[in-house]
Amino acid sequence: MREVKTNKGRIINMQELSDMHQETRAIGNMPVNARGDVVKGDVVIKPYSEVAKTRQVVAEKPQAEEVNIKENFGNPEEVITKVDEGHILNEYEGKDGKMYQEIEFADGSIQVREMKTTTESSKKTKTKK
Fold first, then answer.
1. How far apart are CA 37 and CA 34, in angstroms?
2. Which of 25, 94, 117, 126 is packed most tightly, with the most Cβ within 10 A?
3. So what's the pLDDT on residue 120?
């Protein structure tokens, strides 16, 4: 490994430092030493070479399945004729004096629509005398 020079000019040999502390337990929540061996207390349970071999085992690739997308969605020329009209939850008069309806659809969404009504005031027309 390489040697590293600190800010104060001290030279640290990283390989030598690593070799000195191979047997000490690593800090953290994994039960391993600095070399990578699985340990319990001071006893090496599984050396790093066995741990590395288990990581290198490649699982079987899943089998590819051919799927025809057009088959799953049916005939694209078919036109959907059913339209969700929803059902009326509430009718009320707004602050502006207009009538509104709250309509709930099958997917759970709610829409507020202004009611198209003809009132007597809108039927009146001005006539000239």
1. 8
2. 25
3. 46
CA-CA distances (angstroms) from residue 24 to 38, 42, 45?
12, 8, 14
Q: Which backbone phi and psi does 17 adopt, to 5 degrees?
A: -65, -40
32 Cβ contact list (under 8 Å, min separation 6): 25, 26, 38, 39
Residues 36/24, Cβ–Cβ less than 8 Å? no
pTM of full prediction above 0.90: no
Q: What ranges in 36-119 are assigned the alpha helix state H?
A: 48-56, 69-73
Contacts of 103 (CB under 8 A, 6+ apart): 86, 87, 88, 89, 110, 111, 112, 113
